[in-house]
Design the sequence.
């Protein structure tokens, strides 16, 4: 009788985590999922055995993991993070968690080079891997004086803490004034040492390449290089939306040098961009966890998450190299990315149609696991409703800013009211009640001045 397979605990609920759940579930591995409400895809998978809410703060997160191991029957499971934040959390609490789980994340001192771009650049300099010119301002620096030339980008040093700059990935600045303004904006939620200034390498996603691997003590056991054909947003892509595998030895060689010097163990994605000014591939980032397109080679091999699992549980690991020409798409986001490029004339319609011909591995939709796809469609509907709500902003803004008196205010509010009711003629009651009702619906506060002059509306 065969032994019961060791289970896995995937932390995260987005499409990256969904790919990990499917990878292991299809191999007969019992998979539990820790997720938050904003990311419902992975827990919707039929391969998820248990679905457990993931707390928002580190103290409760650690307590939950210890409790699940000690009293919840998960002792000895393989722990797999799907975000930078959770990978850093595991690295910092490595000793406590390693006593109860099989970890796929190295301890913090072995992880920092991939988490902090300053350390990544230091390592790159040591092993001779190119990277963009970068400055790390400190408190009191005259930031515009640090700049050699524009355009530049502001970036967070790490993506651990959620914030507007990390969400956008980078902010482009084209002159000294824009830099000063944007830097001040970043300091509203980040410390000076958490913000970096970097030259903008020309080109879009088509010039960006990613190396993915499962690694043991600096030695890749399986590896692949993919090119971003499309990303969303197109300027500084927070995520890849359409990639294909390529043969690019220069990227492989640079990545292997970094991994060997770091003596890294685990899953890793290393991002590069080819600089058209000198033809060199320059390292941009490293992600020490599941990357977005890891399912690209899941069916044809190598299946990176399953290989990681086998490595951690002590099973033999053997993988054939990934074939070039494989394609992967996150179809919902790719539609948005492609629509913008089509409208701007940068993507010929024939090229878009040709890219989708033949076999394309989908990030979310799967015939043997359909529910996450249905959930994703529901999320698209919510996004569409939000877009419709956003279209109310223009007449509402006119109403708020109107200075022509109460009668004009009521006219603008009538337009808002009509938009809300899909253009149907529905007369408003008395002006004061109409103002109050619209204000309540839109989350605004009514500030009354002199009744004889006008009512002014301001955002709460």
Sequence:
């Amino acid at each position: 009788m065969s032994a019961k397979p060791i289970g896995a605990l995937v932390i995260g609920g987005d499409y990256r985590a969904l790919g990990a759940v499917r990878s292991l579930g299809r191999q007969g591995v019992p998979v539990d999922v820790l997720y938050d409400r904003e990311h419902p895809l992975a827990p919707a998978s039929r391969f998820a055995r248990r679905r457990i809410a993931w707390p928002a703060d580190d103290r409760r997160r650690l307590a939950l993991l210890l409790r699940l191991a000690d009293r919840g029957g998960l002792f000895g499971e393989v722990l797999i993070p799907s975000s930078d934040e959770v990978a850093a959390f595991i690295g910092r609490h490595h000793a406590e968690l390693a006593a109860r789980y099989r970890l796929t994340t190295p301890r913090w001192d072995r992880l920092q080079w991939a988490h902090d771009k300053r350390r990544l650049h230091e390592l790159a300099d040591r092993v001779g891997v190119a990277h963009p010119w970068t400055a790390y301002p400190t408190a009191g620096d005259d930031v515009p004086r640090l700049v050699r030339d524009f355009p530049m980008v502001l970036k967070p040093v790490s993506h651990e803490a959620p914030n507007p700059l990390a969400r956008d990935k980078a902010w482009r600045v084209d002159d000294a004034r824009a830099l000063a303004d944007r830097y001040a904006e970043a300091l509203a939620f980040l410390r000076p040492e958490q913000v970096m200034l970097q030259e903008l390498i020309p080109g879009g996603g088509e010039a960006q390449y990613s190396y993915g691997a499962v690694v043991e003590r600096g030695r890749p056991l399986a590896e692949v290089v993919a090119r971003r054909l499309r990303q969303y947003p197109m300027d500084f892509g927070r995520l890849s939306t359409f990639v294909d595998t390529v043969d690019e030895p220069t990227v492989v060689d640079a990545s292997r040098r970094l991994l060997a010097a770091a003596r890294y163990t685990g899953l890793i994605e290393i991002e590069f961009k080819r600089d058209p000014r000198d033809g060199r591939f320059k390292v941009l980032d490293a992600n020490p966890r599941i990357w977005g397109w890891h399912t690209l080679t899941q069916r044809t091999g190598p299946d990176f998450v399953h290989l990681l699992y086998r490595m951690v549980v002590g099973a033999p690991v053997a993988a054939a190299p990934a074939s070039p020409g494989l394609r992967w798409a996150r179809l919902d986001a790719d539609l948005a990315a492609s629509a913008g490029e089509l409208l701007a004339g940068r993507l010929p319609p024939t090229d878009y149609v040709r890219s989708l011909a033949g076999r394309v591995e989908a990030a979310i939709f799967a015939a043997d696991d359909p529910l996450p796809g249905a959930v994703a469609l529901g999320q698209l509907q919510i996004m569409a409703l939000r877009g419709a709500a956003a279209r109310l902003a223009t007449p509402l803004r006119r109403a708020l800013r109107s200075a022509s008196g109460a009668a004009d205010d009521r006219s603008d509010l009538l337009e808002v009211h009509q938009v809300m009711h899909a253009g149907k003629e529905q007369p408003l009651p008395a002006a004061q009640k109409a103002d109050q009702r619209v204000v309540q619906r839109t989350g605004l506060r009514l500030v009354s001045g002199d009744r004889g002059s006008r009512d002014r509306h301001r955002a709460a």
Summary: Residues 371-390 form the longest helix (20 residues).
